[in-house]
Amino acid sequence: MFDPQELAKTLGDLQEKLKVAQEENKQKTITAKSGGGLISVSANGEGEIIDISIDDSLLEDKESMQILLMSALNDMYKSVETNRKGMAMGMLGNLGDFPLKGI
Fold first, then answer.
1. 85-97 average pLDDT score
2. Does residue 28 sit in helix, strand or coil?
């Protein structure tokens, strides 16, 4: 039988788990490198850039620096997206942990 109180509790629990997962995601650092480590770009799990490191040897070669920076940024954004999908799948997988009898 459908129990509205149980559903409300379940949704509240799920919302709380989502908040915790989002906060953990903000604390996660994702880093991508290009040019054998000449450029390194780091972002949090939300995709906000938190650090860029460029080797001094690239400072006089603007074109190479631009190419390597684009490569590192693209790789980092792909990793952020993979992380987001993994988090979403984890949350969806956890739905099976909630008692949704009668729905």
1. 73
2. coil
pTM of the model: 0.71
Residue 60, number of CB atoms within 10 A of its CB:
8
Sequence-distant (6+) residues with CB within 8 A of 64 are 35, 58
**Owner of token pair 């190479």:** 64
pLDDT tens digits, 25-50: 889 999 999 999 999 999 999 899 99
Cα 44 to Cα 36: distance, rounded to the nearest angstrom: 22
**7-30 confidence digits (pLDDT tens):** 788 778 878 888 888 888 889 999
Please give the structure tokens belonging to residue 83. Answer: 């992380």
* 63-100 core/surface letters (b: 16 or more CB in 10 A; e: else): eebeebbebbbebbbebbeebeeebeeeeeeeeeeeee
Placement of tokens 């997988």 in the chain: 93
